[in-house]
Amino acid sequence: MSEIEIPLSRPDITTLEIEMVTRVLRSGRLSNGPMQERFEAMVSRRAGTDHAVAVSSGTAGLHLVLLALGIGPGDEVVTTPFSFIASSNCILHVGAKPVFVDICPASLNMDPALVERAITPRTKAILAVETFGNPKHMDTYAAIAGRHEVPLIEDCCEALGASLNGRAAGSFGRAGVFAFYANKQITTGEGGMIVTDDETLAEACRSMRNQGRPIVEPRMPVSEDDVPEPSNVASSLEHVRLGYNYRLSELHAAVGVAQMSRLDEILERRRGVAGAYLDRLMGNPHLIVPTISPDTIMSWFLFVVRLVAGYTPEERDRIMRGMQMHEIGAAPYFPCIHLQPFYRSMFEFKAGDFPIAESVSQRTLALPFYTRLRHSEVDLVAQTLELMIEREQLSRA
Predict the structure, then answer these.
(1) Fewer Cβ neighbours under 10 Å: the N or C end of the chain?
(2) Cis ω before 334 (30° cut-off from 0)
(3) Can you spell out the DSSP letters for 305-338?
């Protein structure tokens, strides 16, 4: 990495995270310990839910929720084609079928009217993704799910700290799942968290994350500063259900505790970076910047712009490569899931099946975005992007 490189993302790690990890290493307890419970308590409070279950990734969390809801072969789950592929892969992992619906061009989340029309007698859940940290329509999805008596699963992997009409991301569905990969708002390196008010679902997920061991007694409320040794997981080699090794280590949980203690500061800094980008790029006639409705508090996962109609995917890619040649990170977020080779071969999807998602996907460009990105660096990114667009315009002449 050169001194001028501006990467696409960078985790915000301070001495506090290092001190917390060191504390765990000195404790001698590296798994199923008090740090995990403390992390769970902090996330559940933030989401406004009764329970939280730490797992090894957001993908693992979605998989366990689907299993806990009894979704399997022959079932359908309504979801979005404009997302990271894990949100749909989890549906395949349990043997069910993802039923895609097109997106709203403003929020980039599913079009609620299309969600309603996609429900059939085989529909067993709606899996809604808060794209790039935008919770728009989550209340509408919840109402649709209630009318049709199917659970809403909230993929809030990109939305920790977001809210809609004052209601926190993670609290809209039967269960929500956060993720803590290195490019997320907070990170544990690898990790995820299931949040829910459903005690039975939470207990099933706790058991399945730990190889199907039984839960021998109810979880007791824990405070942030004084967490007892966990006693809810049986220590025997008895296994009451098919389980998985989806545990989150104490080392990862320690990083999570430190990050959660700084969450408001992190979110505020990210809002500042997003604001700087908006101020700098909003007037550019070649770009569409994120649209946030007044009832929404965005939790900025990425800053994604898209080129206006008329630009081709090839032009977008040349602009992206030009930025990369100038040591500035850029990436196409997201390629449509239904056009991924595996999905096309398995379900015979084709271009044109979901035109809005496809049109958006072909023109999106994620710009460098992280907590400590300086405003001078935002300006350099914007200048380089505009230069690459101008070069593309000249090549058309």
Answers:
(1) C
(2) yes
(3) EEEPTT--HHHHHHHHHHHHHTTB--B-----GG
Residue 136 bears catalytic tag: no
The yes-or-no verdict on residue 279 having pLDDT over 60 is: yes
Phi, psi at 202, each rounded to 5°? -60, -45
pLDDT at 256 over 70: yes
Gyration radius of the chain's alpha carbons: 21
Is pTM beyond 0.85 here?
Answer: yes
Whether 304 shows a pLDDT value over 90: the answer reads yes
CATH number of 15-261: 3.40.640.10
In order of 187, 201, 233, 238, 334, the CA distances from 184 in angstroms are: 6, 26, 29, 36, 15
Q: Which member of 97, 124, 136, 184 is catalytic? A: 184
CATH 3.90.1150.10 domain extents, the chain: 263-396
Residue 104's closest CA among 146, 136, 78, 143?
Answer: 136
Alpha-helix residue ranges (DSSP H) falling in the chain: 15-27, 34-47, 58-68, 86-93, 112-118, 138-148, 199-209, 250-261, 263-281, 313-325, 341-347, 355-361, 375-396
- Helix, coil or strand: residue 102: coil
Tens of pLDDT, residue by residue over 133-191, are 999 999 999 999 999 999 999 999 999 999 999 999 999 999 999 999 999 999 999 99
Give the pLDDT mean for 372-382: 98
State whether CATH 3.90.1150.10 applies to domain 263-396.
yes
Start and end residues for every CATH 3.40.640.10 domain found in the chain: 15-261
Which is nearest to 248 in space by CA: 393, 22, 31, 11? 31
Round to whole Å and give the CA distance between 388 and 383: 9
Give the residues across from 307 on adjacent strands.
Answer: 287
